[in-house]
Automatic annotation (TrEMBL):
It comes from the Eukaryota. GO terms for cellular component: membrane. It is a multi-pass membrane protein. This is Major facilitator superfamily (MFS) profile domain-containing protein. GO terms for biological process: phosphate ion transport. Its main location: membrane. High-affinity transporter for external inorganic phosphate.
Length: 533
């Protein structure tokens, strides 16, 4: 146990699970619900956008987004998210977690609505406006990553901290599922109200004019859950760890946490001064590199590798389902019914693979540890990717088997590195750099998402030029793309060895922030250990 632990931090570490823990999970988690809805919801409507704005009635197949437009629509939100993670991560350490927490949420609300109101006299105008608003939507979403993770980490007790942070992140699963459900409801309603023939029967009438409302409604609904939690975000006090260790205001930290924990806490100004003066190195210092350089490399690279595979799979499920024949060919459906079929398939994967994986992590992370879950997740993602790719042609005649195996890749992504890469950076870095380092790690992940989104867009195209989507050059095919993704997951296994185990330790034990200046050597040795304890 650390020898100079502040009483207010001791109280937080030892607190039993209380109502305020669940309140914090919901408040922070609804941000991630919105994040997932907005980021992954675009995959539900890209086929519809292609039909509405890029159909050539002289062509035997309905329109698809041109390669540069598809790359922009899929990628701009990720570029914004990457920028937001770096900016708000830094700002959260400079100004405090709470002061910028509401700003990210309002940015998401405004830009979700604005995305649905995208306008223009031409298809290029509409897509440009959409990409503009999705960049700023991503910027707000990016801020939610480091701030939500850090706030939950600093509020939680050390016994169940991993489960609480993972529960915030697990709200992503419900966001993905809700996106599919909203798309199902909206498309089914419009399909019932506005009957249209398949494209192969009547090319002009297969896309009802009213279909333009569908994608707008789906995007704008993303503002609702974020708006509902804005008031409660503003009511949350600043975390005691920021107030005491960064702002150095022990009196305010004790007062805030006395209200939260409903106990009287002693003000300990002298301990705050000792902890702050003995542990004040910056991000770009040799001391940080010595203590945490390998940790930051490990968290960043693991998140980068994970997101290449995870976002490739998530954003292009519809293309994989079409390739294996689970989704009917586009020309056999009208535009609105195609949205319904895409939403149904993605909802099924979310329900069977994505959501269970998240909650397995929540249940087990504080028992078997972050390191074990991440290592196991990368291993099984590799196994199932190769199991899909190597006998790929067998799966073309066995759709049910393919879907089971494909769902398992999502299950072990979420009962694995997709959750732990979010949890660990919120635990292992000092309070004054915690939000910044989490933002850097998350930004590396979004760089991977950009690589995955753009790379898969081209790589998964058929090797036969006659079978590629309009405007795309031949790619390496779905089979070879899955082999590449499996190899990337395999790399994640090795970089996981750089990430320390944080199970069962207080944040200050992990970072040495509560150590006296003359007792730091022992703590530094333990805080820089890179293998699980």
């Amino acid at each position: 146990m650390a020898n100079n632990q502040l009483g207010v931090l001791n109280a937080l570490d030892a607190a039993k699970t209380q109502w305020y823990h669940f309140t914090a999970i919901v408040i922070a988690g609804m941000g991630f619900f919105t994040d997932a809805y907005d980021l992954f919801g675009i995959s539900l409507i890209t086929k519809l956008l292609g039909r509405i704005y890029y159909t050539n009635e002289n062509h035997p197949k309905p329109g698809t987004l041109p390669p540069n437009v598809a790359a922009a629509v899929n990628g701009t939100a990720f570029v914004g998210t990457l920028a937001g993670q770096l900016f708000f991560g830094w700002l959260g350490d400079k100004l405090g977690r709470k002061r910028v927490y509401g700003l990210t949420l309002m940015l998401m609300v405004v830009c979700s609505i604005a995305s649905g109101l995208s306008f223009g006299k031409s298809p290029a105008g509409v897509m440009t406006t959409l990409c503009f608003f999705r960049f700023w939507l991503g910027f707000g979403i990016g801020g939610d990553y480091p701030l939500s993770a850090t706030i939950m980490s600093e509020y939680a007790n050390k016994k169940t901290r991993g489960a609480f942070i993972a529960a915030v992140f697990a709200m992503q699963g419900f966001g993905i599922l809700t996106g599919g459900i909203i798309a199902l409801i909206v498309s089914a309603s419009f399909d019932h109200a506005y009957k249209a023939p398949p494209y192969s029967v009547n090319r002009k009438d297969s896309t009802a004019p009213e279909a333009d409302y569908i994608w707008r409604i789906i995007l704008m609904f993303g503002a609702v859950p974020a708006l509902l939690t804005y008031y409660w975000r503003m009511k949350m006090p600043e975390t005691a760890r920021y107030t005491a260790l960064v702002a150095r205001n022990a009196k305010q930290a004790a007062a805030d946490m006395s209200k939260v924990l409903q106990v009287e806490l002693e003000t300990e100004e002298e301990k705050v001064e000792t902890a702050s003066s003995s542990n004040s190195f910056g991000l770009f210092t040799k001391e940080f590199a010595r203590r945490h350089g390998l940790h930051l490399l490990g968290t960043s690279v693991c998140w980068f590798l994970l997101d290449i595979a995870y976002y490739s799979n998530n954003l292009f499920q519809k293309d994989i389902f079409t390739a294996i024949g689970w989704l009917p060919k586009a020309e056999t459906m009208n535009a609105i019914h195609e949205v319904y079929r895409v939403a149904a398939s993605q909802s099924l994967i979310a329900l069977c693979g994505t959501i269970p994986g998240y909650w397995f992590t929540v249940a087990l992370i504080d028992y078997i540890g972050r390191f074990t879950i991440q290592l196991m997740g990368f291993f099984f993602m590799t196994v199932f990717m190769f199991a899909l790719a190597i006998p790929y042609h067998h799966w073309l005649s066995n759709n049910a088997g393919f879907l089971i195996m494909y769902s398992l890749t999502f299950f072990f992504a979420n009962f694995g590195p997709n959750a732990t890469t979010f949890v660990v950076p919120a635990e292992i870095f000092p309070a004054r750099l915690r939000s910044t380092c989490h933002g850097i790690s998350a930004a590396a992940g979004k760089l991977g998402a950009i690589v995955g989104a753009l790379g898969f867009l081209y790589a998964a195209q058929s090797t036969n030029p006659a079978e590629t989507d309009q405007g795309y050059p031949p790619g390496i095919g779905v089979k070879n793309t899955l082999l590449v993704l499996g190899s990337i997951n395999c790399l994640g296994i090795f970089f996981t060895l750089l990430v320390p185990e944080s199970k069962g330790k207080s944040l200050e034990e992990l970072t040495g922030e509560n150590e006296e200046a003359d007792g730091n050597d022992k703590q530094q040795a333990s805080s820089t250990q890179t293998l699980p304890v």
